[in-house]
Amino acid sequence: MTVPLDPGAQRVLDLGRAAAGVPFEAGTPDEARAAYDAGCPTLQGDKEPVSVIKDIGIAGPEAPIALRIYRGKGAPVSGAPALLYLHGGGWVIGNLESHDEICRWFANLAGCVVVCPDYRLAPEHRFPAGLQDCAATLVHMACAAVELGIDAARIAVAGDSAGGNLAAVLALMARNGDVPPLSAQLLIYPNTDAAQSADSYRRFSEGYGLSTSTMKWFRNHYIRSEADIADWRVSPLTVDRLDGVAPAFVVTAGYDILADEGLAYAERLALTRVPLVRRHRPDQIHGFVSMGRHIPAALETVQEAVAAWRSFDPA
After folding, report:
1. What integer is the mean pLDDT of 91-117?
2. Which of 49, 111, 285, 298 has the fewest beta carbons closer than 10 A?
3. Which of residues 142 and 313 earns the better pLDDT score?
4. How many Å apart are CA 236 and CA 112, to the nearest integer?
5. How far apart are CA 315 and CA 304, in angstroms?
6. Active-site residues: which are they?
7. Distance between CA atoms of residues 219 and 165, nearest Å
8. Cβ atoms 228, 127 nearer than 8 A
9. Which residues contact residue 168 at a Cβ distance below 8 angstroms, ignoring those fewer than 6 apart?
10. What is the reported pLDDT for 2?
11. Which residue ranges make up each domain of the chain?
12. What is the pLDDT of residues 235-254, one digit of tens each?
């Protein structure tokens, strides 16, 4: 039985149709970024005040990486839990402003320090450039833990959509010992399979926000060649094994072309007996956590993610 769309999600879709904007794939990446940036303030939830916000730069693999650091209300001055948040946007769009409210929510709800990197975007910087920046940020967090006032043993990673993809890949890299260990991975409607062959790509191909053609445009800007599609660092669902990865929270949306691959990834985690909290929002669309102005489930989902993270780390 199909669950009706959440009224707030329907409102967002109606606003998008009324705006009559051109699809991202009909223009250039810069045009897509400008359109996305212009639309974010009309959808985002409240930007809660936090204790401290600081912008810094760190050395990256090829160029400096801009980081925004949030210390939430109630976060201890030293030894705080920390969250590396990786923004979504199909590896092509998104920045430190587009997911600012989500980072604030996590910081306050978890009483933690959130670090968000402005990682390199495609197609100017194709795979694995953005992933390398995210990995470099995690290394910095672990190495500069005292300076940041965080506990290096309590760093988690989170991300939405393409950011969820990067977060899942970092968790696999951490399991392999390629980056510092993680205490949890919080995956919000993650992209896990660049083959884009799941049935949800057909069921929700258009009319629900993120379309199949737009997602193909994003992927084709991100990868260097077709061969990258089978690389688990692009498609973590294809990795040989998932045992030993950090405990996971996975949320999926019912009216989302990424629904099936997110559910499949959660199922593989469950079969491997990775500590797991699953949430499925059958009445929601892709990107709803960035639409808090209209969709109460946005903040509720961050609350659920924080509760799951705490259940993995009772300290």
Report:
1. 97
2. 49
3. 142
4. 27
5. 18
6. 161
7. 12
8. yes
9. 185, 187, 190, 192, 236, 265
10. 80
11. 7-312
12. 999 999 999 999 999 999 99
